[in-house]
Each structure stands twice: as structure tokens, then as C-alpha cells.
Amino acid sequence: MSFSNVYDDTARAQAYATLGFPGTYHLAYRDLPTLIAEYVSGRRALDFGCGAGRSTRFLGKLGFEAVGVDISRSMIEMATRLDPDGTYLLVADGDLGAFEPASFDLVFSAFAFDNIPGVEKRQALLRELRRLLSPRGRIILLGSTHDIYTHEWASFSTSDFPENRRAKSGDRVRIVMKDVEDRRPVEDFVWFHRDYLDLFAAAELELLAEHRPLGRDDEPYEWLSETTVAPWVIYVVGRRERQ
Ligand SMILES: C[S@@+](CC[C@H](N)C(=O)[O-])C[C@H]1O[C@@H](n2cnc3c(N)ncnc32)[C@H](O)[C@@H]1O
Q: Mean pLDDT across the stretch 22-35?
């Protein structure tokens, strides 16, 4: 399959550069400090699919020595411009060979897996990320639930894409971001929970926690579906040791 990364685009990188954590994104990051404090020890972090560095800077603020990697040159350039003292590396797709085994206590990935097609590629990447984990290291995957592509949200619309309802894991789905000027739909690959469980098992990873943040009435946002349907899921996984 030929696949073009919709994020390897200067306008998209510009939009992400100023995005921050508005609306529905607030829920993606709101509960992470608590989850990270509970499950992660050590300070060395890899931010896989760092984009314009929003997630890497977030890890830095939590006290991590974070390295951001991405396959998009425009994203890495933007991340470096926004955080000149940070470490951001352009990598080839699937190639994390620059890093020694067991180099990281936390491998964090926010939304990158929403862009990764196919079970083989996902499995191979998860195995590679597992290789980078220190013995008690954790991978935290933050991504979209399948529900995000079939509801309306403070920050997203999917009403123009009724075909999303028929999508199965690995199928392309489209969604429009309402918080940025660039209203071209983003194309993602949907992935259902049960298929994430299969991926973790195949990559010899053990699921330690899963969390689906919901919006609260006392938050200063105009929630649409957020108080009853979770737009995001956060998986915490560690190595499943070979018997
Ligand atoms: C939606 S952006 C999120 C960026 C950032 N993590 C954040 O939360 O703002 C997803 C990023 O994943 C990157 N990505 C997609 N496939 C990747 C791969 N195979 N390896 C590394 N990065 C990848 C894209 O280039 C894009 O910058």
C-alpha cells in the first residue's frame, strides 16, 4: 500500500505548532500526569511521533529528559524552532535503530498510531518500541477511540463522513479539526479496542491499565459528546516477560 503522511506538510505543521490543548485535546492530556506518576519510574522518555513537539514539551514539563522522533521533516523543523534546546530527530519510517536497547523508561506516543496502517506495521513498531524499554519501562499509547470518528465534539466534526460508521480496524476514516484554520479533513486509520489487545499480545506486551477520559460539567468547554462518550483511550503497557 502506498501511504502518504498527511502530517508531512508545512501548513499542517504550522497548525499544530500553535495548537496547544484546546477543547477535546484537554481530555487527552488532562489525566496523563496522574497515570504517568502511577506507572512510570525513571526520567528517560522517547516521544514517538512527536509532531511539532507539543507532546515532547509536555513530557519535559513533567521532568522527563525527552527525545522526540517523527517521520515528518516539517514537523521536526517546527518542533526544533519552538524548542531550540530540545532534542528532535527525523527518523525513517519504522527505523529506531539509532537508539540502544533499553534506553527509555517511558515510550510515549500521542496520536501517532492513528496514522499507522496495517497490523504488520503496527506490530513491528510496537516490537521496536518494546526493544527500547528499560526492564521496568512503560509504553503509554494515547490515541483515538473508534467513537471519535462517528460523533460530534468540541474540537472535531465527523458529520460529513457517514462512511466512518462502517469502518473496521485499519480502514481509513476522516475527521475535521475545528480548532485550527486548516479545515482539510485529517485521514486516520481507525483501530478498535479488541484489535489493540491482539496487537499488544503479538508484540509481547502486557496491558497494565487503560483509561478513557470523559469531559466534566465543571470544565470550561462546550462539550458535545465528551461527557458521555470517550474520544480518547490511553493504554499503559509493559514488557510481557518470556516464560
Ligand atoms: C497527530 S500528530 C501528533 C503529534 C504529537 N504527538 C502531539 O500530540 O501533538 C501524529 C504524528 O505522528 C507522526 N507519525 C506517523 N507515523 C509515524 C511513524 N511511523 N514514525 C514516527 N512518527 C510517525 C506524524 O508524522 C505526526 O507528526
A: 95
